[in-house]
Design goal:
Elements: E1 4-5, H1 6-13, E2 16-18, E3 25-26, E4 28-29, E5 39-42, E6 59-63, E7 75-79, H2 82-97, E8 102-103, E9 108-109, E10 114-115, E11 120-121, E12 126-127, E13 132-133, E14 138-139, E15 144-145, E16 150-151, E17 156-157, E18 162-163, E19 168-169, E20 174-175, E21 180-183, E22 188-191, E23 194-197, E24 203-206, E25 211-212, E26 217-219, E27 225-228, E28 233-234, E29 239-240, E30 245-246, E31 251-252, E32 257-258, E33 263-264, E34 269-270, E35 275-276, E36 281-282, E37 287-288, E38 293-294, E39 304-305, H3 313-324, H4 326-349
Parallel strand pairs: 4-5, 5-6, 6-7, 8-11, 9-12, 10-13, 11-14, 12-15, 13-16, 14-17, 15-18, 16-19, 17-20, 18-21, 19-24, 20-25, 21-26, 24-27, 25-28, 26-29, 27-30, 28-31, 29-32, 30-33, 31-34, 32-35, 33-36, 34-37, 35-38, 37-39
Antiparallel strand pairs: 1-3, 2-7, 22-23
Length: about 350
């Protein structure tokens, strides 16, 4: 929580105070339409100007040239660019609330683990034998970092994350709460009516600037590596199967499922609940709308597809129209067949 005076905020932003006492305190950041006492907000979009006359926020960041048409209860902090200033304030707030370097006495660190400089490790987190944690990493409470895990600098690991042995994590990766990296792939061999588990001896590699959403699972490879390449962003509740490769800067929304040994290209965009069958190849730049089901490879780059099986959006929309009319079409077809049978019967009697 913030606890700064208006003069402190104005100093951070290089602005000036108009109305209100410089020693007035603000505690939180808020939307202008949801302003409350002790809150600090901003006005950038003219569509929201009317809110400034009714907001209960203690202070509002505005452009220097803003001229109110009615009395404003809140103090104004005038800056060159209110949107950019508020963005800087959000970054400052994020840094201000980030845990400071230090290892909790309640954390368990293996004697041979290597911990870099300025690292924070929260209570009840476990760093197993041979693990390496880079400089400036933050590991929140109740995380598990397995044996021989290599984590480069400036990673952010939220509470409850589980990172299995031999996982490699690049620079500035973010793993949201509950993510599981490196669990066994779903590998079983039929054996006389039952299933025999296939040992999974590979690992997971997350390259630089990857973000993994809450409760998302990335399975380790049967052999070799499951690879999430640089800049990939995965939403919450996603399943990435064993030996999958996800190309650079690809993004996936919630509940996507990628089956094993699939290769996803660069700069792809997958909507929620997309499913891709195993051993498929998806070309660069492919965009899949929500709930698209992909039974095999998509070779054409920059395709936009929807449905199951995936279709061009225009074809899909026309097909949906036909689907809505399918019941009446069937009735008409039955009637035509009936009339045709009657005509044939009459011809046979002639």
């Amino acid at each position: 929580m913030l606890n700064f005076t208006l003069s402190k905020i104005a100093g951070i932003l290089g602005g000036s105070i108009d109305g209100g006492s410089p020693e007035t305190h603000v505690h939180t950041l808020c939307k202008i339409e949801e302003g409350h006492e002790g809150g600090l907000t901003f006005l950038a979009n003219p569509k929201y100007t009317h809110y400034i006359y009714e907001t209960q926020a203690t202070a509002v960041i505005v452009n220097k040239d803003f001229v109110p048409e009615h009395p404003v209860k809140a103090a104004l902090i005038r800056v060159d660019n209110s949107y950019e200033a508020f963005a800087r304030l959000l970054a400052f707030y994020n840094e201000y609330t980030t845990p400071k370097p230090g290892i909790s006495e309640l954390a368990c660190i293996a004697p041979d683990a290597k911990i870099g400089k300025n690292v924070h490790i929260g209570a009840f987190s476990v760093i197993d034998s041979g693990a390496e944690i880079g400089d400036n990493c933050i590991i929140y409470p109740q995380c598990y970092v397995g044996s021989q895990v290599k984590m480069k600098e400036s990673c952010l690991i939220y509470p409850g994350v589980k990172i299995y042995a031999h996982t490699q994590i690049g620079k500035a990766c973010i793993l949201q709460a509950g993510a599981v990296i490196g669990a066994d792939g779903f590998g079983f061999a039929p054996n006389n009516g039952s299933y025999e588990k296939i040992p999974q001896i590979g690992n997971v590699i997350l390259e630089d600037n990857v973000e993994i959403g809450a409760n998302t699972c990335v399975d380790k490879a049967t052999m070799g590596s499951t690879v999430i390449k640089e800049g990939v962003k995965l939403d919450n509740l996603i399943q990435i199967g064993h030996n999958v490769v996800v190309g650079k800067n690809t993004v996936m929304a919630s509940q996507v499922g990628i089956a094993g040994s699939t290769k996803i290209g660069e700069n792809c965009m997958f909507g929620g609940q997309v499913g891709v069958a195993g051993h498929s190849t998806i070309a660069n730049g492919v965009m899949l709308a929500a709930q698209t089901g992909v039974p095999g490879s998509i070779r054409k780059e920059n395709s936009t597809l929807i449905g199951a099986p995936p279709l061009d959006p225009a074809i899909f929309r026309r097909s949906c129209v036909h689907f809505k009319n399918l019941d009446s079409i069937v009735d008409r077809l039955v009637q035509v067949e009936k009339e045709l049978a009657e005509l044939k019967a009459k011809e046979g009697k002639a």
